[in-house]
Amino acid sequence: MNYVMKIGCGVALSFMTLASAAAENFKLSNNQRIACSRGLSAGKLNTSTCKSYAYVFNTKTSEYFRCQVSLALTRDNKEVINVQADGGCAKRPRIFDTDSSYSFDATETEGPNTNSFFGPGGYAVWASDNDTLKVRGCIIISSGLGSDISKCIDMKFE
Predict the structure, then answer these.
(1) pLDDT, tens digit, for every residue of 72-128?
(2) pTM
(3) Where is 8: in which H helix or E strand?
């Protein structure tokens, strides 16, 4: 038990060090979502899979990371048989070409079992310059052919 506590404290300290070093430039988006699905397998096994997405945004450069965490749980009528978890963040390109002070938010489409037309769906990101009236909206969708399609539009203020 002592060993587990030491590892847990070490991991927490590592994250706090990383967070303090990056605190002035990185911000977590305010729009996280979670989606879960259930399935029945042979032998009356139940599998539940949950995924959640979040975005970490560099407020100076407008680069961002799309992060995903997933958990799959398999059980029968009496016990949990298997639990698997995975996660990571993928770096995405800058939204604006120049450094400034930016704000950011993002949202995911619903899962493919609802109204998504292009496979697993996509996501939308919004970024704005905190110093000038500049907003850019981007939609990124899966083409179903292996690559994502991304388009960003600068907003006009009338």
Answers:
(1) 888 887 888 888 988 899 999 899 999 999 999 988 876 555 444 455 668 888 999
(2) 0.67
(3) helix 2-22
* 150 close to 138: Cβ distance less than 8 angstroms: yes
pLDDT at 62 over 90: yes
DSSP state of 95: S
Neighbours of 99 (CB within 10 A): 12
Kindly list the domain boundaries of the chain, sorted by start residue. Answer: 25-154
Contacts of 97 (CB under 8 A, 6+ apart): none
d(CA 77, CA 95): 49
Nearest to 86 by CA among 105, 66, 72: 72
Tell me which H or E stretch contains 84. strand 80-92
